[in-house]
Amino acid sequence: MSGEFDFIDWIRRQTTAHEHVLVPPGDDLAVLKWSADDLLIVGVDQVLDTVHFDSNVHTPREIGRKVMNRNLSDCAAMACLPAAAVATVALPKSRDIDYAKQLFLGMKVAAEIFDCAIVGGDTASWDAPLAMTVTILGRSAGIPPLRRSGAKPGDHIYVTGPLGGSILGRHMSFQPRVREARQLGKTGIVTSMIDISDGLSRDLRHICRESRVGATLHSSEIPIHPDADILSRQTCRYPIEHALHDGEDYELLFTTSEEQPFGYWIGRITADEKIIDEDREVSLEPKGWEHKL
Questions:
Q1: Measured distance CA(221)–CA(201) in Å, rounded
Q2: Cβ(32)–Cβ(119) below 8 Å
Q3: What structural domains does the chain harbor?
Q4: Is-above-0.85 flag for pTM?
Q5: What phi and psi, each to the nearest 5 degrees, are found at residue 180?
Q6: d(CA 45, CA 55)
Q7: Measuring CA to CA, which residue among 163, 169, 172 is closest to residue 241?
């Protein structure tokens, strides 16, 4: 492939002016202008070939878009606005600079939807599968960040959309719920929130553990995506099992201190630190994706 400098020059030509960016890509560090009355919120996420995508199946634009969208979804999880991002790529030596350009363009298209500037990063090549990392910088912009630890007994539990079967394609093409999260944050009644990346059963467990509470779910109320019905015919598992455990839906799971019209109501927070599916009268075990180290 062409040299790193050629790639960096190409990236600089793709960069447009942004109100927060005083020094764009090209120096050792970018420089951002930050308001004294705003909060800086930082996160990082990596994606790996054969774990989060398959480079033999998915196009580089699809991969780049997913890398960025996972980070944008983390912004949504805390109701913050994306401001800027830096990215790294370890590119297999079998891939050329055109492949790298398509990865970048996939990230850029996803970021531009939310006015998020890509302000820097790093590139390398190696004799191993594709690996990418994005670090996202968010801003609170007048809405206090929503955390996992605020749920209280009696709170209502909601999700923003249908769940399950994302592996059939939505895990690569999902839309981060940034705008929906901002609307929720403005209500003042949301007590905790998380994006559903590891599966409803596991991500609800995260909220309950951080908040030191339990939950009673009503599985009959959980919205099931049509993809879960399709996948169930291949796996011989009930669609509700896919809705509960599949992961990578990237909808928002949140709790509120009072009922509200946005999203799908699926249960209540309890004082007992157990999660029960009341409709099926069973304890709900977290069976979604677990990061093993």
A1: 14
A2: yes
A3: 4-139 (3.30.1330.10), 156-283 (3.90.650.10)
A4: yes
A5: -65, -40
A6: 18
A7: 163
Which H or E run includes 215? strand 214-217
Distance CA 205, CA 276 (A): 11
Q: What is the mean pLDDT of the chain?
A: 91
The residues, ordered by sequence, that sit 6+ positions from 216 with a Cβ below 8 Å of its Cβ are: 267, 268, 270, 275, 276, 278
- Residue whose C-alpha is closest to residue 107's, from 74, 68, 134: 68
pLDDT attached to residue 221: 97
Q: 161: exposed, middle or buried (C-beta count within 10 Å: 0-12, 13-18, 19+)?
A: middle
Examine the pLDDT at 155 and tell me if it is beyond 70: yes
pLDDT bracket for residue 265 (50, 70, 90): very high
Contact, 46 vs 132, CB < 8 A?
yes
Is residue 129 within 8 Å of residue 170, measured between CB atoms? no
Q: Residues 130-152: pLDDT tens digits?
A: 999 999 999 999 999 999 999 99
**Does residue 153 carry a pLDDT above 70?**
yes
Element (H, E) at 85: strand 81-92
Q: How far apart are CA 226 and CA 234, in angstroms?
A: 13
Single-letter residue type at 44? V
Mapped onto helix, strand or coil, the DSSP state of residue 122 is strand
Burial of 19 (0-12, 13-18, 19+ CB in 10 A): exposed
